[in-house]
Amino acid sequence: MATSSNARTASAAEIPLTTAVGGAVEYDEQITKYFLTAAIIFGVVGMLVGVIIALQIAWWPANLGLQWTTFGRLRPLHTNAVIFAFGGNIVFTAIYYSMQRLLKVRMWSDALSRFHFWGWQAIIVAAAVTLPLGLTQGKEYAELIWPIDLAIAVVWVAFAINFFATILVRRVQHMYVAIWFYMSFVIVIPVLHIVNSLAMPATLGRSYPIYAGLTDGLVQWWYGHNAVGFFLTTPFLGLMYYFMPRAAERPVFSYRLSIIHFWALIFLYIWAGPHHLLYSALPEWSQTLGMIFSIMLIAPSWGGMLNGLLTMKGAWHKVRTDPILKFFVVAVSFYGMSTFEGPMMSIRAVNLLSHYTNWTIGHVHSGALGWVGMVSFGMIYWLVPRLYRTDWAFPSWATTHFWLGTIGIVLYTVSMWAAGLTEGLQWRAIDEAGQLKYPNFVNIVDQLQPFYWLRLVGGTMFLVGIVMLLINYLATVRGAAPTPAARRVAAAA
Amino acid sequence: MSDDNNAPYYWHRKLEGNLGMFAVLTTVVILIGALVEIIPMFTVTAGPQALAGVTPFTPLEQAGRDIYVREGCYTCHSQMVRPTRAELLRYGDWSRAGEFEYEHPFQLGSRRLGPDLHRVGGKYPDAWHYEHMRNPRSTSPGSVMPTYGWLYTQTIDPADVTASIKALRAVGVPYTDADVAGVAEQLKAQGGQIVQALASQGIKASPDHEIIAMIAYLQKLGVQGRAAIKAQTAAQAASAQ
């Protein structure tokens, strides 16, 4: 079949291609190790804050009565930490590792790579300090104050220059599909970030967006939804396209499918933002566009899922014993599930029930823990032995981590579905007299307590899993024999 | 695969070898949806959806709004009532676009861990809010909201509020020079009214404490919109006769 032979060549990136120029390449592996270490540490921190705020909902005294530790201030810290600190560092790990190999060239500038690393970590530390202090822009996932926003733009420009320059000096003619997905991330994130962050500073810590009211809302959710699309989806699909075939030792299933779903995904995603404002005073045409494009998104999303799952063809028997493949298969399955659930929730009638409820929280976490988290762990368990040229200190922990994570996600999402449906139905229940059946809001909140505790158990299991990963990682790195700073790879002449 | 002219997807193989073309095409593809949805929004509040009678926040209310943003109230409370019977009964009239005309940033929220607040203005007396923010369970038994004790010790700085009013004017909120110059007096005057209302309930409060600004903000929410909607409905009914 022509497709599969194309795919085989396109995915066999590690095999020197005839288009590659001869000569030795020294890959920069140190930068990959830097980002990987930061990702694991910030993953633990971000998820720990998640568990703390989950506890605060179940048991309010956990707010501690201190202004720096209330739910309202820690929740942005949690979201920013897991998305930009954990997710960001994971993506950068994947990019710095895979693009050097895919393009058969070292990163164009070591200085820019390091500026990117230290700049990004400084931004994370600045976020961790300012958010508990209540310094915020008050826009979800875009809370960071304007000086930090400026720093993000500068660091991103440095990263983008390094990224594109590395492609320019590549020694392989064609850019593999992972690179397309990375490129959409590198291009779209600054567009979203800059447009959404345009603001007039009042003081060093406070600014006001140039947009007002629903215009600000539309711009924000255009940003917010595409942060999901281009920060938590496309670069992670790129990661999947590189690491999953390597772990499974199978070629990507279909080259044709990867072309179609890439272009369709990036075109459709950008329209979907208004589904966050259904039944608001946002113009109806805009809400309808958001809904329709969200539903259309199922097709390219599932294109990616199928291309991932079908890549396992011929390797399914390995899933039983290989924890890395377990992580990848579950991750891609959760990707498929949450990209089906999301479009369903953007149908107006469904959204009327699900919006404002815990259902949304469950949906987000099935994507964030199930897809982003699990695919990241799959990559880490594959990558560390290759990067440090040593076995894991505790190889069996990977399987334990996998089960803790998987069961944790199931407890999390199921409890949030139940809680979301309960509150959504009770909020709108009308009795025979035409009055609210549950007029006291707090009574509805109280009924959700068991679900909140169950969610806490699920989230804690997921946290324990990544803590095990951190311990395992530190023990592995400590025990690793000193390795040459760079790995020499001789490309075919 | 080598560059075989007859191979399927030859055109895309060419594209994969051309960084500039690939990057430009990616940018164009994502800009289409963005431009179509965002550009028309700049006409939304200016058109027939503008609501007469909706005014900018006073400096004290804006100071309260800044605290609302600082505390991340939007992580638990929405400010957007949807047009359904249940929400009409629970919260009041649905939220209109014109009501948000002077809101930088918007605070519609995405979650109702607590109730919607868009029509909370005038629903409770000032004293209720004063007690509620200090100990939510004193007014709402079973509430999971944190306590906000520091609002009763930290003070509002008029210079800080002036900087906010100036910045808001720069992004289009129609404050006059007199508004900017009179921030300190306005804070004192409106704060004094609230302190008086609290005193009549036996609560001794100081006008420059943050809780006073917070109460001013919460009591403004949805009130002007409600009046404007009522007036509009009445005018429509009159013209229909």
Helix content of chain A: over 70%
**Number of helical elements of chain B:** 11
Task: State the total count of DSSP E strands of chain B.
Answer: 0
**How many domains comprise the coordinates of chain A?**
1
The average pLDDT score of chain A comes to 93
Q: In short, what is this structure?
A:
Chain A is mostly helical and 493 residues long. Helices cover 71% and strands 3% of the residues of chain A. Chain A has 18 helices and four strands.
Task: Please characterize this protein's 3D structure.
The complex is a heterodimer of chains A (493) and B (241). With 493 residues, chain A is mainly alpha-helical. Chain A has a single domain (28-481), classed as Up-down Bundle (Cytochrome C Oxidase, Chain A). Chain A has helices at 2-11, 29-58, 71-103, 110-130, 146-168, 177-197, 213-231, 234-248, 255-269, 284-296, 298-311, 316-319, 323-345, 348-354, 358-388, 397-428, 441-447, 449-479; strands spanning 23-26, 199-201, 207-209, 488-491. In chain A, the strands form two sheets. Chain A has a two-stranded antiparallel sheet with strand order 1-4. In chain A, strands 2-3 form a two-stranded antiparallel sheet. In chain A, a hairpin with a 5-residue loop joins strand 2 (199-201) and strand 3 (207-209). In chain A, helix 2 (29-58) packs parallel to helix 4 (110-130), helix 4 runs antiparallel to helix 5 (146-168) and helix 11 (298-311) runs antiparallel to helix 13. The longest helix of chain A has 33 residues, at 71-103. The two termini of chain A are 29 Å apart. Mean pLDDT of chain A is 93; it is low at 1-21 and 484-493. With 241 residues, chain B is an all-alpha fold. Chain B folds into two domains: 13-43; 59-240, Orthogonal Bundle (Cytochrome Bc1 Complex, Chain D, domain 2). Chain B contains eleven helices and no strands.
Describe how the helices and strands are arranged:
The complex is a heterodimer of chains A (493) and B (241).
Chain A: H1 2-11, E1 23-26, H2 29-58, H3 71-103, H4 110-130, H5 146-168, H6 177-197, E2 199-201, E3 207-209, H7 213-231, H8 234-248, H9 255-269, H10 284-296, H11 298-311, H12 316-319, H13 323-345, H14 348-354, H15 358-388, H16 397-428, H17 441-447, H18 449-479, E4 488-491
Antiparallel strand pairs in A: 1-4, 2-3
Chain B: H1 10-16, H2 19-38, H3 59-70, H4 85-90, H5 126-134, H6 136-139, H7 158-170, H8 177-181, H9 183-199, H10 210-220, H11 223-240
